[in-house]
Amino acid sequence: MKNRSTFWLTSAVAAMATSPLAAQEAMGIDEKVNQAFASLTGPFVSLIFAPFPGTSFPWIVMWLVVAATIFTLYFGFVQFRFFKHAIQLVKGDYSDPNDAGEVSHFQALATALSGTVGLGNIAGVAVAVGIGGPGATFWMILAGLLGMASKFTECTLGVKYRNEYEDGTVSGGPMYYISKGFSELGLPGGKILAVVFSIFCILGALGGGNMFQANQAHAQISGIVGDYPGWITGIVFAAVVFAVIVGGIKSIANVTEKVVPFMGILYVGAALIILLVNYDQIGWAFGQIFAGAFTGLGVAGGFVGALIQGFKRAAFSNEAGVGSAAIAHSAVKTKEPITEGFVSLLEPLIDTVVICTMTALVIVISQQLIIDEATGNYMLNEAGTAIATIDGNSGVSLTSAAFASGISWFPYVLAIAVVLFAFSTMISWSYYGLKAWTYLFGEGKTSELAFKVIFCVFIVIGAAASLGPVIDFSDAAIFAMAVVNIFCLYFLMKLVKKELASYAARLESGEIKKYSH
Amino acid sequence: MTAKIVIGLDGTDTGERALAFAKDLAARMDACELIAIYVIEWSPFTFQTAEENAQRHKRREEEIALAKSRIVDPAIAALTDAGFKATGLVRHGDVAETLNRLTVENGASQIIVGRGSSDGFAKRVFGSSTQSLVMHADVPVTVVG
């Protein structure tokens, strides 16, 4: 894969040098990249999304939802019982002032969120609603609420079994809790499963954490400045990411980390304004969401189609059960690993239940999706695969058109937001991927550089390929992480339950005290 | 009974003047213990990258060691050489809040701080740490110009 990728990169650079042939040849490169990519990743994608025999329901979607439901029941609806406590932890009410200067609960949450809030919330939701109809939103919210329990489980383990090195740095994540947790329970195979997870994590970092981001960032930019070959965006993005992760130019990452939260607030603010202006339609939009959830309102695959899309995009957006957040959350300073579990359960809530729902409502209210007046159902496009939209938009351009119908200049802001979100997600995932890579190949300059270069090459491929194959591979890679992670969580969840019982008892007795009120 | 006085160091000239004033004050008292504190401005509500988080503990130790060797230890040495009983602390946090909390925790009866530099746009808008300390402290505060 690496050799092929390098070949495409070299070809892209060569094509840029021969500018007279530019347009024609460049489009040719995009097409070639696309074809090669689709045929390479096809079998992997088919395996992950294989339906249950005799149905069209992918087993992987069931796998995630069943796990989230089991964790919710096993921990007695922890996401609701400890919701208030989670907020108090983030506010720092239980933080020892003498630990000031260490990573706070808020910082760990914000870092994890910057890896998840992004294109999944903007483009992913548009894909879900565009294919599954408004009803997909209902299933997305449900998956978000259930996913809070998955996140709680994995992040508690992430902190409990992290590696703390002598020089004071930390490394954590599923690969560490799988190997350490399994050996603590006397179970065989922990090491092998950790290795398999790490391989999938690297693929996930290259897919959802990289190619999908590059692809949609290009779609957004070309939507504004006009169509041009994707590999150009790819090269620019790759150069900037390279400067940060290889060149160590921290200032770019620092600026992004500080601007991204404001972009998030701006995005939610704009969505709220559009909803407020159209407040009389909010009731109708929720009506569509509920009706669509159980009838499908004419979408491909009916209500099952809506459900699959909702669950899929929720998992892709909040990554609950995937294991990535456990890597991000493991750096927090706390004597009680479970406190980070509580904090992390806010992540799917903010990401999916709040932000994704906002996007979905704006898309529905803006009436970008074409309704057949006669039946009240949604009309399908010519291929019959998705709902027909006013300008034939899909993905991020559908969200952009929806926002533009309320605030005409918003696509420009959205374009900046998308680029920044894409960039910050790439930086986060380059770290997740690197952690998996170093788990496999050991820490060392050459080994780390090799991964970082591969990561940058995939940015170019992602920007050049078309949405279909990229989104399929991204989903498949991220869900493959969830296959291993959730399988292991079933064995490890009793360790979390022990922590939960002990913590809840000490919280009740007042042994765990508040530092501020 | 020994009176305890907290000196807020900031590594600048005004911090030095606060130190000199504290020495002068302590010399007039029968029994006095001086606590020199340097607070590294830090907020738990900032945004950091995953890599920064992973290295945070290490960085914190480095910051504390640097503040101790450059600012607090020389101050304590100067005070001890002058015949005073002195201890030092380095902490992270909001400067005003942390100075006040440590003063109360250590049973000190007053705080002496430098005026602080008052230029910069942010300080004009939000006020300096010294202003905030004067307004919210639980013990008397002396500001040395």
TrEMBL record, chain B:
SUPFAM superfamilies with a match to the protein in the record: Adenine nucleotide alpha hydrolases-like
Residues in UspA domain copies: 1-144
Q: Which domain of life is it from?
A: Bacteria
Indicate the family of this protein: Belongs to the universal stress protein A family.
- PANTHER family attached to this UniProt entry: STRESS RESPONSE PROTEIN NHAX, UNIVERSAL STRESS PROTEIN UP12
Name of this protein: Nucleotide-binding universal stress UspA family protein
Taxonomic lineage is: Bacteria, Pseudomonadati, Pseudomonadota, Alphaproteobacteria, Rhodobacterales
